[in-house]
Input
Amino acid sequence: MASWLAFLPPSRGTLQLLRNRLELARRGLTVLQMRREMLARELVRLLTELKKRREAEDAFARALQRAAVLRFSRGEFEFRSMASLAKPPRVEIVTVSYQGVPVRQARVVEGPDLTGMHDPEFREVAEELWKALASMIEVANMEEAAAEVGKQLVRINQVANSLEKSVIPSLEDAVKRVEEWVASRELEDFIRVMRLRGG
Amino acid sequence: MVRVELYAVVRAHGLKSRLLRRNDYEAIASGEKGLYEHPDYSAVSDRDTLEEKVEKVYRVYVRRVSLLASSTPELSPFLNALLDRLEFENSKIQLRRLAGSEAYALFYPYGRHIGPSRLSTIRSGREVWKALSEVGLVEEVPQLEEGTLADQEFALDLAYYRHLLRGIEASKISRSCKGRLERAALQECALALSYWSSILGFDMVLDAARRTGMGGAGELLQELAVKKWSTVEAERRLAFTIAKTLEKEYPLEAPFLYAFEIYSRLEAKNLERILTGLHLGSSREEVLKYCVIVH
Output
């Protein structure tokens, strides 16, 4: 039992207060359980999406390998100058809500401009590399979201468990104790009234 | 005149004997041997950055051809024109830099006329062309207001081959050698045109070649009938169809110098590939697959 509950003066007012608190705690627990379910579902969804990670990593490795082959087949001078024709993408960090959990995410505001690359081989490799990189950004976003949702889930679990295992049983005990006290007082009052009437 | 030409050719034969062979490339690509262990490349240190290494490799190429050009003034217009290719390549690098993100650019270490330090300060495409025109590398500044970067680079390639043909014409060599050199230059130009036809379209390239007096190369392009352009394939043709034939037909005349320049240029390109491959951690087999090894 929570220590402060043991020192509450037993009275009808205290009983009312404890009942209100118990009701609030039960409602809170229900809400948290619902939220826990929602976040767990979201986490499962994110983890399912994260299965794409291997695929994205493989595609990224393939694209890098192709770029490396292009780099040494065309030579450093040509590769450098051709690569300078690509205008880099614009990526911003924004906060996105995942079931109410704020998560920092990288958002591609503008893809790279490869129109200046007139060499079809360079452009093809650059497009493949960007596609693979965009997938990796998506995976990183999902990983970050899964981590944040997971953290939130742990916090909610802790609070729900505390309510379920400690706060609510303590309040129930206190309500029971005060109810017993109030009931015995009522019985004493009843007997006193009966005595006064019966003489 | 013949004696001077022969002197240059003999020197070129001497220089050719110093070119790297297959086993040298294999040893360098596998890391068994450092590039600095080869006398011509002793300046290349393992501590150098990739940029420094490839620059030093091209310096060796420039030094070899410059040596021949400086020792034979009668042939220098032709030999210098061969080297001037790097000046045109540097101009392309600067044009790309101006059109793109203006990032740090790596220029070939050559500048008989303009030079990388001056070229890198030029702020517009028109000024690049003007600078080339002022030093006589191009005859006239083309109308490029509506042209794309590809159009400009294509025009630079055509301008280079015209410059090479002028260099051949200005050299004091026999008529037959001149004719053969011109044909070789046109063959090489046709290889460049095959690249551009994959980007700009066959008809457009052919038309532009004819308009700019490179119709001969256009005809050779039709004979080439390249389905899919590849750098390595183009370089193989350059080595085995052009250089080898020149070497075989004219072992003691000026066309051999052109063959030697091609071998030397390909050596620089091969080493550039190997050094980049080593830098990227690529396997020996993979890197060597893209090298054009003649000897």
In short: The longest strand of chain A covers residues 101-110.
